[in-house]
Amino acid sequence: MSSTAFVKRLASNDDKVRDQALESLRRFLGAKNSTKLSLLDHDKLWRGLFFAMWYCDKPIPQQNLAEDLGQLFSKVVFKSSVVPFYHAFWDIMIKEWPQVDKWRVDKFLLLIRRVVRHMFKFLSSQNWDSSLIDSYLETIQDTVLSGSDKVPSALPYHVIDLYLDELERVMFDINGEEEEVNDEVELSNEEKQAIVAKVPVDTLISPFKRLSTDAKMKTLRERSLEVVQDERLVEWGLREAKHEDSNSDDEWQGFA
């Protein structure tokens, strides 16, 4: 089935048509031929997925659809296609975000959270393979975390808000809703540090280190600094605790 046919069905106003299209998409992306898709093909698919979410109006269906789309990254798409599929996701979010109104913004923020979560799940399933992480970082630094004024500011700010939360959720295998993350982790600091030692956290947050010094917008520099100075990095043994006589918050001190 052509990608154009998928787009038309995924953007349908009919719930049954959209659900059937999503199942067809799972089968299509799970087939070996899907690895031959170009970035343009992925963009076309994500445009259809974007409008599938656009027309999804009720909270529970919205939550289910966001999770279903997120799971495409961790459970469906071939390893060689995950990063291009992720690049296409951000391409479309950046292009289409200006038309997202106040009635639809929450469901798209939820979709972003689910996609980021399942990208981390995919990377975890690949034992945090360094070449995949390099491609992943190249993708986000080319799109949502590029620092470009062509990227709607709400997108990098939302990624800043959720990035460590979702990484923490995946590293420590936490279930439940977003607000329950800290309450559910019952591991000791030593146990957490043993897990984190196997994950290249400092590499994964390197785009925020770069933005904290190089971003043109002061607010983006300041918000990015929140990630690299997050207190969880101290808890995980990646950064020393700040002392009273330490340097200003505006200066990146690096990892311990």
Could you explain how this protein is built, in words?
The protein is mainly α and 256 residues long. It has one domain (3-30, 37-175, 188-236). It is 65% helix and 0% strand. The protein has 14 helices and no strands. The chain is globular, with a radius of gyration of 19 Å. The N and C termini lie far apart (52 Å). The mean pLDDT is 89.
Order of helices and strands: HHHHHHHHHHHHHH
- Mean pLDDT metric: 89
Helical coverage, percent range: 55-70%
**Shape field:** globular
Number-wise, the strands total 0
Number of helices: 14
Contiguous low-pLDDT stretches (5 residues minimum) are: none
What is the count of structural domains?
Answer: 1
Structural class: mainly alpha
User: Could you tell me the radius of gyration in angstroms?
Assistant: 19 Å
Percent strand: under 5%
* End-to-end distance: 52 Å
Main sheet: strands, sense, barrel: none
Based on the model shown, name its key terms.
256 residues, mainly alpha, 14 helices, globular, nucleus
Structure summary:
This protein has 256 residues and is mainly alpha-helical.
List the helices and strands and how they pair.
Elements: H1 3-10, H2 15-29, H3 39-54, H4 59-76, H5 79-96, H6 105-125, H7 130-142, H8 154-171, H9 181-184, H10 189-196, H11 201-204, H12 206-214, H13 218-228, H14 232-235
Helix pairs in contact: 1-3, 3-5, 4-6, 5-7, 6-8, 8-13, 12-13
